[in-house]
Amino acid sequence: MRAFAVVSALIASTLAYTITSPSDTQDWNNDGAQSLSWQRVDTDPATFAVVLFNRSTQSSTLIASNVDGKTGSLKIEPPSGGWPHGDDFRIRLVRDPQSLTAILAESQDFDIDDVPLASRTATTSSSPTPTSPTQGGNASQTPGAASSLTVQTGLVALMSMLGFALV
Prior knowledge:
By secondary structure, this protein is α+β, with helices and mostly antiparallel strands. Helices cover 27% and strands 31% of the residues. The chain has a domain at 18-115: Sandwich (Immunoglobulin-like), CATH 2.60.40. It has three helices and nine strands; from the N terminus they run H-E-E-E-E-E-E-E-E-E-H-H. Strands 2, 4, 5, 7, 8 and 9 form a six-stranded mixed beta sheet that branches. A three-stranded antiparallel beta sheet has the order 1-3-6. Helix 1 (2-14) runs antiparallel to helix 3. Residues 4-13 and 125-167 have low confidence and may be disordered.
């Protein structure tokens, strides 16, 4: 019986908010609004805040609050002073701006690339108008989303088999 409870808790923890972009293969750059996408289940909180965390400096910057979790994606405007650039960044979805340590999900490490000023002006004219951080955008399928779902499905299957074996 105790094994069933442990397996159930592990399965429930794998079916929560999952950040699909940015990722270790989908970096951001310091040129304007950047895309964030995620998956959720009905038991996840309806809203959350977004924190940009730098693992190297252990610094956190609140970059969006009161985000509607049902939208599945969002264009985030740069913080005041612009996007930093470098590596070892992560996005954290947290319960609210007052609870920055109540992490609901955390992305893989990603880089924020420095785009030269000349390149920024050339790409700005063709960029779509970003949405505000609290409005969100339309959910879209990203290459990382399919692999995240596959990993979660595999974990659920593994935990189920482990539960049956322990019973």
